[in-house]
Specification:
Shape of chain B: elongated
CATH architecture of the largest domain in chain B: Orthogonal Bundle
Oligomer: heterodimer
Number of strands of chain A: 0
CATH architecture of chain A: Up-down Bundle
Helix content of chain A: over 70%
Radius of gyration of chain B: 22 Å
Radius of gyration of chain A: 19 Å
Strand content of chain B: 5-15%
Number of helices of chain A: 5
Structural class of chain B: alpha+beta
CATH topology of chain A: 3 helical TM bundles of succinate and fumarate reductases
Strand content of chain A: under 5%
Largest sheet of chain B: 5 strands, mixed
Structural class of chain A: mainly alpha
Distance between the termini of chain A: 49 Å
Order of helices and strands of chain A: HHHHH
Shape of chain A: globular
Amino acid sequence: MSKLDYRKLSRASRWLDVRNRKLGMWAYALNRITGIGLVIYLYMHLFVLSLLLRGPTAWDSFVALARSPYFLALDVILLAGILIHGLNGLRIALTGFGIGVGAQRALFTTLMVISAIALWVAALKIFRV
Amino acid sequence: MNTLKVQLQIFRYKQGQSPHYDSFVVDVPDTAHVIDAIDAAWAIHDPTLTFRRACHHSSCGSCAIRINGVEKLPCITRITDVWDGHRPLRLDPLRNFPIVSDLVVDVTSFFQRMSAADMAMTCEAEAFLPFSVDTFAVADLDPKPVDLPENFSRFSRFEQCIECGICMSACPTMAADEKFLGPAGLAAIHQARKKTDDPVKVAYLLGLADGEHGVWRCHSAFECTEACPQAVDPAGKIMALRRELIVSRFTKMLGKRNV
């Protein structure tokens, strides 16, 4: 087994170093964090779906857990990740097409405000279910 | 003019020794730039302190370092703009380059990236100096072009870039992919692309930009453009290359369907 390359790991940790950096770096770091979070969620989701193979009892007990307020809070965090990653991805796609390159900071701010509003509305709906 | 007593915390590294920070307290005028404080630390406290500086007016790019973690040219950065008056002013070498000694890094990889796009070291403007460096006829100050080599276009870089390496240090993707062409390399490709319509050259340049370590490795942090002291806007150039690549792919795709 190859050894963990600490030099590479140390270099990669700079992805999250937003100290004294500008807004674009925050967008970059947020996209990395939410991207990793969504990949972890995908595997968790597949694991949860595999409970169906264990029959109705296993699934029903999971559904009961999923309705608890703590679990619903995780739903809100998931939704935050999806909104931030998705809308930030839209900024990257637009600038990649040459649209809004000069206004990328304003674009990011606007999209994050939209994320925050959408998340607030969704959180209210989630907790009222 | 008042005198400031500035505390510097400077990254130190000599081959075979462990990296560490040394603290120096220097007296400088309140109008001084960071390079003046480094000069004072070197002259008064420690002549073994290694750093680069030449022009003192953001023309050569050689003094580029990180000041409180952010890439800047200390020759044009006033101390009062970056020092809060309490905490030490932290000075580090640029990131993503091998450290030679203290604040000096080996910028070879920067020039390798520039040469990948066939960009060399001469500004077009330099060929139109008011006198030829060969004759040194300073009496005749009317601008006259000097004799250019036949393949002159190969010797023109993009005009504003002072080759300081700040963009490569500021880029977070450079930290993840050592082979990434980086902001300077990709901006050079964009400039070379703008200068030619030769289909062979265009294909070569766009192929370079489209490669595994090309424009698609950029994740749009825009830190290169934010940090660039010369408004080269490398991120804008990367986005322009992306746009051209996307358009060219769509054109090829639609063209093939229409056949």
